[in-house]
Amino acid sequence: MLPKEFLWGGATAANQCEGAYLEGGKKMNVTDIITSGKHNVPRRITPKLESDAWYPNHTAIDFYHHYKEDIALFAEMGFKSYRMSIAWTRIFPNGDDKLPNEEGLQFYDEVFDECHKYGIEPVVTLLHYDTPLNIVDTYGGWTNRKVIDLFVTYATTVLRHYADKVKYWLLINEINCIETVPWYSAGIKNATRENIAIAAYHQLIACAKTVIAAREISLDFKMGMMYAGYFTYANSKDPEDVWGNYAFQRNHLFYADVQCRGYYPNYKLKEFERDGIVLPTVKGDNEILQNGTVDFISFSYYFTKVAGKKTDFHNVTNCLSDTGYVNELLPKSAWDWQIDAKGLRYALNLLYDRYQKPLMIVENGLGANDQFSEDGMIHDDYRIDYLRNHFNEMKDAVTLDGVELMGYHMWGCIDIISFATGEMSKRYGFIYVDVDDAGKGTYKRLRKDSFYWYQKCIASNGEDL
Ligand code: BGP
Question: Which UniProt keywords apply (predicted)?
């Protein structure tokens, strides 16, 4: 049995659901200048908005105006928690404003009040791929140490303002993906090894400083890091592949190592030494890392990958793409993401064994090309099967392996913009939203079969699958 206080919920991100990209005082962030892509056509960063290009994050699913309806639907499913993010640019539109934007603070006050109306606990990500564009234009993004204090000012402002409404905070979404999506993660245009290492250093210091400040604001806060689940299997039993896989996976886990243990591990320092990368350390930084470790680890899990002697960690062009090898034993989604339910048990044990800290799944789910049946419904049995298989492995990790798991949040609990492709047609939700890849539609919401299945799952605390 899962613990009775298990947080069953769902997840979204501001930039992928809110829309209203210039409303309520908000200014642009790095996602607002990225065009839509397609399954195999990458999205484009356009420093100047192009009149004939489509920018899906500008409207998304208009959660900004539909949040009451959407949260009511989450409550109908029985959500205990809802993982969402605050857009930095709603609170400090330029990222460096002297005072916060009251309209932005008000918007999230209303969202959190709506959640609490139904007994839903918010789980709030402070930065989910949406660094203010002005931070990039004026400071050059996270390679500039100044951004540390700008982020800490933003973070402590919302931590203080929502202290009595939000207990669970996630620092930087998928912080290990700075290596592969540096623009989304850190507003880095020139993604050299050095720039990524420097920006990552500043983000890790910013996270630690935020945790230290959080302890002063409320002892009730639970501060979590957010790790992009890079869980890989060796491409063969060749020791070179086994080592290559180990090194690849550890390069991602490095970001969790620092946030959970409070220091840069030797294997990373030796790598930087070999590669002539000099970290921009400042006196006092080591103490900050040491004192700013997190309470729990949240992570995303979509797939496992395969890695080996030929996988070069620093040349993986997209955090969600293959590491060069496909596991032909596994089925794949319509977007070629390998489906591996057993891998979730492996992932939960790997993280728990390495850090002995409580875990929280804050992203998992199946992006699919949902279609209506003649009866006007969406019979997404494939999504129910995916979730049932993953929940069985998740329960085994808890009941058979003793993993401490705080909760589960299905990614895209309502259809939202795909991060990698900008499409709406890559649908994850329990709730269908009538918007197409060009932003056209009625924006009406519709319950899929999985909506009712998840309702029963939550009501039985994961027993009735
Ligand atoms: C993760 C991001 C999420 C979400 C997810 C699914 O990396 O943290 O924001 O988008 O990927 O990816 P996609 O939306 O491209 O299917």
Answer: Glycosidase, Hydrolase
